[in-house]
Amino acid sequence: xxxxxxxxxxxxxxxxxxxxxxxxxxxxxxxxxxxxxxxxxxxxxxxxxxxxxxxxxxxxxxxxxxxxxxxxxxxxxxxxxxxxxxxxxxxxxxxxxxxxxxxxxxxxxxxxxxxxxxxxxxxxxxxxxxxxxxxxxxxxxxxxxxxxxxxxxxxxxxxxxxxxxxxxxxxxxxxxxxxxxxxxxxxxxxxxxxxxxxxxxxxxxxxxxxxxxxxxxxxxxxxxxxxxxxxxxxxxxxxxxxxxxxxxxxxxxxxxxxxxxxxxxxxxxxxxxxxxxxxxxxxxxxxxxxxxxxxxxxxxxxxxxxxxxxxxxxxxxxxxxxxxxxxxxxxxxxxxxxxxxxxxxxxxxxxxxxxxxxxxxxxxxxxxxxxxxxxxxxxxxxxxxxxxxxxxxxxxxxxxxxxxxxxxxxxxxxxxxxxxxxxxxxxxxxxxxxxxxxxxxxxxxxxxxxxxxxxxxxxxxxxxxxxxxxxxxxxxxxxxxxxxxxxxxxxxxxxxxxxxxxxxxxxxxxxxxxxx
Length: 516
Known about the structure:
Blueprint: H1 34-53, H2 55-66, H3 70-86, H4 88-98, H5 100-118, H6 124-153, H7 158-166, H8 168-187, H9 189-200, H10 202-208, H11 215-219, H12 232-247, H13 249-275, H14 281-311, H15 321-350, H16 354-359, H17 362-381, H18 388-405, H19 412-425, H20 432-440, H21 445-474, H22 478-515
Helix pairs in contact: 1-6, 1-7, 1-8, 1-10, 2-3, 2-8, 3-6, 3-21, 4-5, 4-6, 4-14, 4-21, 5-6, 5-9, 5-10, 6-7, 6-21, 7-17, 8-9, 8-17, 12-22, 13-14, 15-21, 15-22, 17-19, 18-19, 18-22, 20-21, 21-22
Pfam families: MFS_1
Protein name: MOT14 protein
Organism: Corythaixoides concolor
C-alpha cells in the first residue's frame, strides 16, 4: 500500500520540479473561505441527500393517493436518487463550461422547480417526469459541484473536510424526515412538496457561496512538497497518473492554439467596436451582441474540448487502469449499502424483534454511526503516517464482511452491533473524492468523480430491484445479502490487486528495453 496521498502527485507531472518554485500559498486554501465551502457542501447534502433519504414519507402518501402498485410507485424515488448520480458525467461538461458556481445555481432552480411541479401531479407517471427526472437532474447539478469545490479548496485536510461536509446526509435524513412528516400531517403532501420546493431554493444560495479559485491557485498544487516515500505501489499509481499527463500534452498545445485564435477574433471585434463609436447606437448594440456570442462560443468550445478529452481523447481517464478498477468497484458498492435499509424492517419482523426495533430502529443506528464514521475516518486519513488508500480499503473489507454476516444474526443485540459496524465502515463515502483526486488530480476531478457517482447511481437504481427479484425467486432475504456481498467483494479484490499489476508492467517494459 502506498504511504500517503501526497506521494501520488496531484499534477501527474515531473517530480523533479517538486518544491523547486516557492509559491506564496493562498490563505483560502485549507482555511479562510475554504470553511465556507465546507458549510455550503454540508447544506447541499442536507437539502439533497437528506431529502432523498426521507422520501419514504412521501412514498406512503403517493401509494394512498394514486392506488398504484408498490413497485411502480417506488420507481419515483428510485429515479430521483439514481438520476442524481447517473448524470454525473454530463454535469462535468457543465462545470467545464460554466464553472461550479453557475452550475449549482442553475441546478438549485431546477431542483426547486421539480418539487413545485410535483405538487400538481395527477398520476405516478407525472411524478416520473417532474420529480424523478427534473428534480433528479437539478440535484445532480448541485451535488457534484459541492464535492468538487471542497476538493479544490483543501490540500492538507481534504479527507476531514469531505467528511464534515458529507455528514449533512445523516443530519438531513433526521431533519427532512421530521419536516416532511410534519408538513404532510398539517398541510397535506401536495402543499408539503410546494413548501419543500421553496426551501430547496436555498441551494442557489449554497451555489453562490462556491467562489471559484484562480487557475494559479489550482495549478500551484504541483509545487506542494511531498514526503519521500519509497513505497513501490505509490510509484505505480503515480505512473498511472503520469500516463494521463503525458498523453494530454498534445491536446493542451492544441487548446492553446485555439485560445490564441479565439482571442484574435475577440480583439478584432473589440477594435471594431472602439472604431465605430461614431456609428449609430443600433450598430453598437449589434457589435456588443456579437462580442458576447463570440465569448460564449469560446467558453463552450473550451469546456467541451476539456470534457471530451477527459473521456474520449488521448488523455482519456480510461487509460488509467487503477481508475477503471475504481469504476468497476463503484458499480457494486452502493447497492450493498442501500439493501440493508430496504430489507432490515422485514428481517426484524421475521425474527419477531419489532418491539425492540421500535424503541431504537436498526436503520437509525446505521444513520447515526454513519455520521461519526465519516468524520473519524476523515481525521485518520489526514494523519501523516496513514494512507488514505489503506483506510479506504480496510473500511470496504469491514463493510462487505458485515453485509455477508448480517443474515446470520438473529438476536437484536447482534444485529445492532453489525449495523453499527455497517454505519461506521460506510463512512468511507467521504474518502471517495479524496481517492479519486489522488488517482487523477484536481484538474480532472469533476469529470472523474462524475463517472464514479454515475456508477454508484446505476448501482442504486438497479440494486434494490435486483434484491427484490432474488427474494421473489428464493423467498429469503439471505440470498440478497450473499449475492450482493459477493459481487461487492469481487469489486474490492479487483481494486486491491490493480495497483500491483500497474507496478509490475513498467518493470517488464524496462526489461524489454534493456534487452533491445
